[in-house]
Amino acid sequence: MDAFDPLLDTDLTFPVDAADGAPMVLESGHIVSLQFDESAIQSLMFRNAPNKLVLGYTRTMMSFLLLQPAPARISIIGLGGGSLAKYCYHHLPDTHVAAIEIDPAVIALRDAFQIPPDDGRFEVICADGVEYVKGREAHPDVILVDGFLACGMPAQLGTADFYAACRARLADNGVLVANFLETDPDIPFYLDEVRSVFGESFSIWLSEDGGNYTLVAWKGKLPSSNTLLTRARSLEAEHVLDLCSAARHLKQRERPVLDRRSWQARVN
């Protein structure tokens, strides 16, 4: 989910008869967008580059490559328009990608966003992501959390119980990445919950293009600065991502000073 930018396409207009909270595909000559209302974009696709990561926060979420450059399995909580799922499927050919989406109405729109059909290493699962991570049938190397409803991020995706289930589900040296809206007043609470599960093994920073925060939490030991930067430069030859910047954020275990009272005063 990202803040709406009307400059992206002046022909992109919201239908006057759109049902409240229902996922809606908006189309123009160049862009296809998934939205629940006029205020925020859930997903954005360029017609001439359907697998491109258009929104900055999606590119920042790919920072997991610094810790898991060749993951065997990725689980994505929240399908939306499939930006992350498509990118991982097409650019990580040895990786199994599972996208978990609670809303069948969102899944029904997959063809509009050129989301590939299920096959041996790609699947879309209609399920509650909170319940899904409690399972034990697979242990992904990476869990990406980008689940949003019309009202914002479900509260269940920001609790210690959820983060603990994610950590238990992850493979050894696994990575959890979560997307938060920059204006979410509960970010300090989420970080307290993350810390109770991952200790100090996490970093959070403002996503590329702003408007969102990206949280990265990890099991195992964080690589050295030299290893992270070397890996970032190598990966940037294959991916259009700012991974060198992400490497610095990770190594510094960067996080804003998020006193709850001052944070809520800032965003309200």
Summarize the structure in words.
The structure is a single chain. This protein has helices at residues 56-61, 83-91, 104-107, 129-132, 160-169, 187-198, 225-236, 243-251, 260-267, and strands spanning 2-3, 24-27, 31-35, 40-46, 73-77, 96-101, 122-126, 142-145, 175-181, 202-206, 212-218. By secondary structure, the protein is α/β, with parallel strands linked by helices. It has one domain (56-265): Rossmann fold. The strands form 2 sheets. Strands 7-6-5-8-9-11-10 form a 7-stranded mixed β-sheet, sandwiched between helices. Strands 1-4-3-2 form a 4-stranded antiparallel β-sheet, with no helix packed on it. Helix 5 (160-169) packs across helix 6 (187-198) and helix 7 (225-236) runs antiparallel to helix 8 (243-251). It is globular, with a radius of gyration of 18 Å. The two termini are 19 Å apart. The model has no long low-confidence stretch (mean pLDDT 90). One of its GO terms (biological process) is polyamine biosynthetic process. This is Spermidine synthase. Residues 1-226 form the PABS domain. Keywords: Polyamine biosynthesis, Transferase.
Strand content: 15-25%
Shape: globular
The overall pLDDT, averaged over residues, is 90
Q: Quick one: CATH class?
A: Alpha Beta
The CATH superfamily turns out to be Vaccinia Virus protein VP39
The description of the largest β-sheet is: 7 strands, mixed
| Low-confidence segments | none
Please identify the structural class as seen in this structure: alpha/beta
Q: Kindly state the percentage of residues in helix.
A: 25-40%
In N-to-C order, the SSE pattern is EEEEHEHEHEHEHEHEEHHH
CATH-level-2 architecture: 3-Layer(aba) Sandwich
Biggest sheet strand line-up:
7-6-5-8-9-11-10
Computed CA radius of gyration, to the nearest angstrom: 18 Å
Number of domains: 1
Please count the helical segments: 9
Distance between the terminal alpha carbons, to the nearest Å?
A: 19 Å
Number of strands: 11
CATH topology: Rossmann fold
